[in-house]
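Q: Hi! First time asking for a complex rather than a single chain. Here are the components, and I think there are two in total. Is that enough to go on?
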Amino acid sequence: MNNPTILVIDDEIQIRKLLEITLSANGFRVHEAGTGKEGQISAAMHPPDLILLDLGLPDEDGQSILKKLREWYKAPVIILSVRDNEDDIIQALDNGANDYLTKPFRTGELLARIRTALRLAQNTENVPLIEHGNLSIDFTARIVKKNGEVLKLTTTEYQLLTLMARNESRVLTHQFLLKTIWGPSYLEQSQYLRVFVRQLRKKIEDNPDQPKFIITESGVGYRFIGGEK
Amino acid sequence: MKQILTQKYTQGNPAYLISIIIICFISAVCYPFTDFIGYRTVALILLFTVSVLAMKLSLYPVLLAAVLSAFIWDFFFIPPHFTFHVSKSEDVLMLAMYFIVAMLNGVLTARIKHFESLAIQREERVNALKLYDTLFNSISHEFRTPIAAILGATDNLLTDNSKFSETNKTNLYQEINTAADRLNRLVGNLLNVSRLESGSIRPKLDWYDLNELIHTTINQLETELKSHEVKVEILPNLPFLKFDFGLLEQAIYNIIYNCSIYTPEKTLIHISADYISDKCIIQIQDNGKGFPKGDLSQVFSKFYRSKNTQTGGLGLGLSITKGFIETQGGTIKVENTTGSGALFTIEIPTQANWGGDFSGGFLQ
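A: Yes, that's all I need. Here is the structure of the assembled complex.
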């Protein structure tokens, strides 16, 4: 396969330069854009495999660019922003961002997120079986095993786990999880989510207090981490 | 003079009323005893009253008291009574003197007070400047130290770096890394302080698992807590509580971060949480040295730095903690425990939800 192309939309030359060096050293081809307008034109002319989007652009707000991109662009978009408050993060995720990293970010972390996003974007069809370390989820047989032993999960626990596992590495907001599993009238009932996350962690994690699979994203939601492939 | 005039308006009517009431009251008390003490003594008592009023009230109410008391003395006390007519010439003199002394009393006291307030203002301005200077110095110091480290390290790496061993180069990169981390933390703290000062923080309350919050926080501090021992004690049946996850997390993070920085290796950090009478109570205790006794009341003040700590830091962390707890209606206090070490106690009034109310098929 060709080297994946990444479009960087950021008005700061320093950040673009850093990303260009980091990404090309890691085998990606890099396109750059300094404004929202340039970025959207570039994305339309040469659709990249992934877009890194800054929210604070001089000509247009990143959130609205994200919305416009999502009307036709299906590949992953990762937000890179200095804004670190929960509202901005939740809004960006709701607008269709695959991931959100705040500046300053660690390049190691960024590369890991990019690779996961690209890998998941390729597996569009639903895989029948997921295996992560000592945990395996068989979607066809509806069986979850830990260390080879079948776990007894309730229907809701199973739904929650598979929803998160199918969106591996993506932050799923509290609102999204409540709406999808319990329905739109349960948006305020976040305690349901807490109960089931607590129960699931007890069943699938080695140490529920130091979870390796279901990671808490402060005030935003949960992220399912699959670990090394 | 302008100041005195404005004082008259800002003081409002109560001051006038007070001076009228007091003068009338004192006169009424003196009246039955006039024959024993003599009407001239009454003049002294009234003069004394005006002097006392002058110390408390502003110029115009005092002048009112002076004029009023002069008329009352004349009308009720100087014979012939119940008339403004004064028969003896020495009483005329006395009345005139009374009038002048009372007036002077008011004016002089007002002027003294005016100069006094000017002096206080001047002193406050000097103090504010001094505080600003210290603040400015420490902020620029906090920023410039890591910047100096970064510039120094990059200079070395960019110019003729062949004379450095690989280990030393790695150390220089490490220095840059540490300095950048420090700058980032500094900016974060300053932003949080300004968010608090501007009052723009609106807590986003939702049901959360306190156990999850505390462990998330500790997991974030994994590196800092490497050489410390952490013990968490939370009741397994603690209900879900309503709070702002981000704010409480940051508040607890700052306390534990401080414990990790300012206590020696192998120190035990003990974290416990409970829910008692509609309050969420979180306690964080270490067995380090604790705070110097006289400092306990200032621990949460902005820019507080314990005297016996190593350099570094602006002293904002715990003030942010306090601010974030208080925006959720909670309180925080710190004490030194009987053995040793510091004990932080956070109390937040909050609703509880045992999560047991799952009607229908939700537990399925």
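A: The two ends of chain B are 82 Å apart (CA to CA). Let me know if you'd like any chain examined more closely.
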